[in-house]
């Protein structure tokens, strides 16, 4: 059994992003199940600033072949399957390449992973992405001619007239160190962390507004939000923090990796998932960060339903999926219920991590995909 995993960016193995890690974990899951799978990167060498601008223009026009650049290769002739994530948008060049693959290798199984669905609102969140959305709409109507299965996290049987395989975002729990909480933290201070790309659907303005409201209403606890990551919303968040004079309550780190990231996890006793999914019409979060939080052993607060967590979980607090500010009094109460009964923070972390092994280890989350490939 031999296949190819197509990915669209070079992997920096010294500073792995969350998606990079997921791809490598999926590859490992295939190989551990006796499937020989090669990683193929559709990305060019580093280019000049001018060439990057030109590529951004070319990808936006109807027949532009960029991000990624699709080309046929003879290596597709002698494989059993192709697994690939949804690209920036579906293009005529992608359709052409897969049509040629099917023509030369009729038995090959083609599996498209769509990690988040629906995704249309994500593509329309910025005006400059709208041409990509139009291209995607047009070309995905033809996907059923070249794609055999779509791996999706939603409970649906078909998508774009293609049968689905249901899977769950997974991680390799053993690759993520359990947090080593600072047991002697000031009991008056509550440290929250969010480790995420700062895109509109994260919605952390709701949390910043909530901290401001809490202090305006004479809140007594010292709440500190540690934001780890970069993205289009960072400047917006920074302006809010400045306007609300919350510079000591909201800290920006940029992207962190390795031990630098572990230090933040060790400081923080609650972690934030997404609070802006209502902007993209997603009712549920299936984020990789929620899995990492579980593996770290840190309770989760979210602004929408998290797929792996039950409403009655003692380590999960859910707020409505809308634009309302977050009530920090509820977060204070949640924190005290978890950590105010004398149980050590490390004991809490161990319980949460044990749950992570059951629900989101990649050895179980990819089972249905592996079964389809092998059978």
Automatic annotation (TrEMBL):
The keyword Glycosyltransferase applies. The keyword Transferase applies. One of its GO terms (molecular function) is glycosyltransferase activity. Residues 185-272 form the Glycosyl transferase family domain. Keywords: Glycosyltransferase, Transferase. This is Glycosyl transferase. It comes from Paraliobacillus quinghaiensis.
